[in-house]
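ARCHIVE RECORD
Type: protein–small molecule complex
Small molecule: pseudouridine-5'-monophosphate
Source of inputs: curated submission
Record status: active
Notes field left blank by submitter.
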Amino acid sequence: MKKNVLRLSQEVKNALNLKKPVVSLESTIISHGLPYPRNVDMALEVEEILRDSGVTPATCAFLKGQPHVGLTQSDLLIFAEEAAKRGGDKGVSNVSKVSRRDIGYVMANQLYGGTTISSTMILSHLAGIKFFATGGLGGVHRDVPGETSMDVSADLTELGRTPVSVICAGPKSVLDVGRTLEFLETQGVFVGTYNEDKLDAKDLKLPGFYCRESQVPSPFGFDSFEEAAQMVYAQNSLDLQSGNVFCIPPPKDTALDSSFISEIIESANEEARAKNVSGKHLTPFLLARIAEKSHGKSVDCNVSLVKNNARAAAEIAKAYHAISP
Ligand code: PSU
Ligand code: MN
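STRUCTURE (tokenized, with ligand):
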């Protein structure tokens, strides 16, 4: 890597120099995942949650083409305001949604870019950060009737090649969760669920983003954040260059009932098919339609689960730090 290309905030630089725990945060959830101004409040609150837990937050984003790891508060506000303007990505936002394939283009054209899970993992790894908290994982989209869309999120291939752990509430429930898991298995990615209710391993389901449980069994479970940290430590000891997905069920008081949200998700997917929404625009389209159809309930749940994931990520990062200072 060419020196000085990555822009680290002073706060992140200090923490990394002093070998203090750092947790990354993404910015596509700000630019394309949540409505303005809830997105800004969420981003600032999540950073505060990490600081209160003794962990330094590193929000990643592209600002005028430069890859940033750690944003100042004014950077973050400018970024969110840019995102709220119309233009850019087909009239959706002035900020591009950046996965691995988009990085060179956004840098060369000095654009603003929200980092998805895939590009946040890349920037985190370059900076030396091992843990990253967000809402929900991208994955294999549900099929268009009669054909296979091949819409598989770049998050999944990135997890197969970059050693960063993503702490989230499972694959987003707009997806085909079963196929997403199969793809992750092929990519060699560990997927485990925090077994909060101390269930029998055979009864442990992957959380369903908005819902506490999906219908898909979780390949692995973990009973404590220390256990998660031990797993990462063991992997690193063999220099395995793959990532992990640690799933945290959404908080009981804000999780949505599957009977309530499934129909809404199904009708949003049908609308996307009818309107031929595809590629990088599909996930933001689905999230926005679900927010409208659920009268904001999905947004409340999304914000609350991101905060919950940040708390868990802080504990895992601190536990890792204790075994590998
Ligand atoms: N989590 C959320 N909301 C989001 C995302 C995650 O709660 O909007 C973003 C992440 O950046 C993830 C992206 O990488 O959605 C997935 O997009 P796609 O399906 O196009 O890969
Ligand atoms: Mn996609």
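CURATOR ANNOTATION: The first strand starts at residue 7 and ends at 8.
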